[in-house]
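Example 3.2
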Amino acid sequence: MADAVIAERKTVLAGFHGGSAKVRLTPAPVANRVSLRAGADAVAGLSKALGLTLPTKPKTSATAKGRTAFWIGPDEWLLIDEAGGDLMADCAASGTLHSAADVSHRNAAIIVSGPAADVTVNSGCPLDLSLGAFPVGAVTRTVFGKIEIILHRVEAETFRVECWRSFAEYAFGMLAEGAEDASL
């Protein structure tokens, strides 16, 4: 029997770099991602199986052991595992009724960091990104230029911009222009 060949996942942004004197743009490492849908009765079981408490309030996230869960809607989360864990297997082991779809190959992410990170993201995003309105840990689905993104404030001066792979170069280019403008 022939050995199974497994495709190696590479970031669409390999080799991309950018930024300015006040902003650094970095492609996020390859990660496992799952789009999760479940009712309120499944949250406790899924949280236990995943090793983190799924957030249940708008604009919130939770992080533990290399995993992050973004609240996207009343019954929807985006799960990200940068530690190589098997999110699909953990969801399946929860013993709950849910829907989980592996979207690891669909998404890419860009880390925007530095003292002008908020200005850079605001170059294409209409949200109020002040710390008071969008604090550390906040997450939302929004627009950036002409595309949909999921925006997460990781730290006071760091954002994670999640987008579909097919839009990653567009997002990176827009962010690079925003970074240049933010440093003027």
